[in-house]
């Protein structure tokens, strides 16, 4: 018996064991976790595009006293600033006690999600129906999108430059839209195809109307005309105006509690808005930090991070240059490079949780699990660690030590078995600037689907982790 006790003590001392975040925190933290998730669900239900998410971020920042550089005469520790990049990406800054050229702390997430974009000339009529042509954005399983209630979100820019915001399908009295699918009785050929080919990209056509314009023998496409008239009468735009529009179809409806115990959040766009919300809330709860804190929100991660609002753009470097210019008078390029190279960053992006229905694709010894805390992913990419970033042992050690010190549940995670697949985040582009960077985010199930699942305990752990990362004096 004595030998058994000694072995158990040795195992407890030497072995690495993860513990359920629910059990580690206990019932006394449960109310805080659930209250935090209630706020997250409201955000997730409201912000379904990068434009809507960015607008939410800027509005919340303004309410808390954040201003632009043009609105402040001098920069002192504690100054709160926001930078809005074309309404599609942004950065929030709290100036620290140390000069920014000595480095800063950054948590970066992405605000875009897989969806269906409308084509430049989307509206057409066929077989008595009016439909929108779409182009899918990001990695989706195309067969998941037919017969889903869809909402239309976005902006239409008129010839005179006026912008009209569109959101149809989210209100209780709103109509919704959908993509049709074959009935099983006529789908023998479709059902014989591989899943990736069962629904063609060009078949993702959104049904938007069936009522024809009053009969006139000289008119064709009267259903299309009726839809155009309705759009013009309601919103004031014509078919040509759709050429200068960013309109997307996304799953309609609010985020919901999942499970008898309401321990999970289900909804569209949790990749990566769960990390957006957790980091935003953590950032707003900061007191004066030692290191300048930056909360960075990037667009276009799901399609490679390119473009002037993606993480590959010069936006973040320009923010740092602006800050150095205002605090140091002169902005030599070297100081900007030094600030970026001395920075430490968390790439706040989700990881795939172990799915008990599909265990064969994951390495169960290294996969993240729902309810076990924030997932630290040392490397992403695929196969031979290609196409992504890898955190150094030193930085990985620094972060885990910080989380242990503050009793924040964490686990390691990777994206499937070797040679099974893989993926990347904005970490590689932050690393390109010279930063130490580690992927740290919420594990989810059914990633990139119209209805993703996350544990409320993991969401709260991410919020706590991002906050202490910025606030740490080390």
Question: Radius of gyration from the CA trace?
Answer: 24 Å
CATH superfamily of the largest domain: Zn peptidases
CATH topology tier name of the largest domain: Aminopeptidase
The helical percent reads: 25-40%
Report the average pLDDT across residues: 94
Largest sheet: 8 strands, mixed
Structural class: alpha+beta
Q: Uncertain regions: pLDDT < 50 for 5+ in a row?
A: none
Q: What is the number of helices?
A: 13
The rough form would be described as globular
**In CATH terms, what is the architecture of the largest domain?**
3-Layer(aba) Sandwich
How many structural domains can be distinguished in the coordinates? 2
| C-alpha end-to-end distance | 44 Å
Question: Mind telling me the CATH class of the largest domain?
Answer: Alpha Beta
The number of strands is 22
Strand fraction equals: 15-25%
């Amino acid at each position: 018996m004595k030998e058994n006790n000694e072995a158990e003590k040795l195992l407890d001392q030497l072995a690495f064991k993860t513990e359920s975040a629910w059990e580690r925190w206990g019932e006394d933290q449960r109310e805080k976790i659930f209250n935090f998730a209630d706020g997250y669900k409201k955000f997730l239900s409201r912000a379904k595009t990068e434009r809507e998410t960015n607008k939410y971020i800027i509005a919340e920042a303004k309410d808390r006293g954040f201003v632009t550089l043009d609105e402040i005469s001098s920069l002192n520790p504690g100054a709160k600033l926001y930078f809005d990049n074309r309404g599609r990406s942004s950065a929030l800054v709290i100036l620290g006690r140390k000069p920014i050229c000595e480095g800063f702390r950054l948590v970066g997430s992405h605000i875009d999600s897989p969806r269906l974009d409308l084509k430049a000339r989307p509206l057409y009529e066929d077989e008595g129906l009016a439909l929108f042509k779409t182009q899918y954005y990001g990695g989706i399983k195309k067969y998941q999108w037919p017969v889903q209630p869809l909402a239309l979100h976005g902006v239409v820019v008129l010839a005179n430059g006026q912008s009209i915001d569109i959101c149809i399908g989210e209100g209780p009295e709103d109509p919704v839209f959908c993509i049709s699918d074959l009935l099983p009785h006529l789908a023998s050929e479709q059902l014989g195809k591989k899943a990736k080919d069962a629904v063609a990209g060009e078949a993702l056509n959104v049904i938007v109307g069936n009522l024809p314009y009053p009969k006139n023998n000289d008119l064709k496409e009267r259903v299309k005309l009726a839809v155009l008239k309705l759009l013009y009468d309601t919103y004031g735009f014509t078919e040509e105006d759709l050429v200068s529009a960013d309109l997307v179809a996304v799953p309609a409806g609010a985020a919901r509690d999942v499970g008898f115990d309401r321990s999970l959040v289900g909804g569209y766009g949790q990749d990566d808005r769960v990390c957006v919300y957790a980091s935003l809330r953590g950032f707003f709860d900061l007191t004066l930090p030692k290191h300048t804190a930056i909360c960075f929100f990037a667009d276009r991660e799901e399609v490679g991070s390119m473009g002037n609002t993606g993480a590959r753009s010069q936006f973040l470097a320009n923010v740092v240059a602006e800050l150095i210019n205002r605090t140091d008078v002169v902005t030599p390029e070297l100081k900007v490079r030094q600030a970026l190279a001395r920075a430490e960053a968390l790439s706040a992006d989700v990881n795939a949780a172990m799915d008990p229905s599909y265990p064969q694709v994951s390495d169960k010894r290294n996969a993240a699990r729902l309810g076990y805390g924030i997932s630290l992913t040392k490397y992403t990419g695929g196969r031979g660690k290609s196409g992504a970033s890898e955190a150094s042992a030193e930085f990985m050690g620094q972060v885990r030590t910080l989380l242990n010190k503050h009793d924040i549940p964490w686990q390691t995670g990777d994206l499937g078995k070797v040679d099974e697949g893989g993926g990347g985040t904005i970490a590689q582009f932050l690393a390109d600037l010279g930063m130490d960077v580690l992927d740290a985010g919420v594990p989810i199930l059914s990633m990139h689907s119209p209805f993703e699942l996350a544990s409320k305990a993991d969401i709260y752990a991410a919020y706590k982790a991002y906050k202490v990362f910025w606030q740490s004096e080390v």
